[in-house]
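Reopening this ticket.

The earlier resolution said the output was attached, but the attachment link was broken on my side. Pasting everything inline this time so it's all in one place.
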Amino acid sequence: MLFFPDRLNDLLLIPSYSQYERALEELDSIGVKRINVMVDSDYQVKEEVRKARDRYIEMGAAAGFEMAPITWTQKQKGVDDLYKHLFRDK
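Inline output:
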């Protein structure tokens, strides 16, 4: 999962629920209010990916964050594919 906290200019790659729980505590401690969530677009067709995405969103919301899922078409399946598409001419 990739997360874009609203007060940071960095991307956070968080591979597990336990690390995400720790990250939520840290983000709260520095005043982050909103988290933008990116996950591979195959969550639209793969139930296990959708369930993981939903759980991350629910955990963040339960911790008091405004959660903003970022979505895109399946043509750019992964986050890396999306970035290649967005910045291909730069």
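Reporter confirms the inline version is readable. The longest strand covers residues 34-38. The chain has a mean pLDDT of 80.
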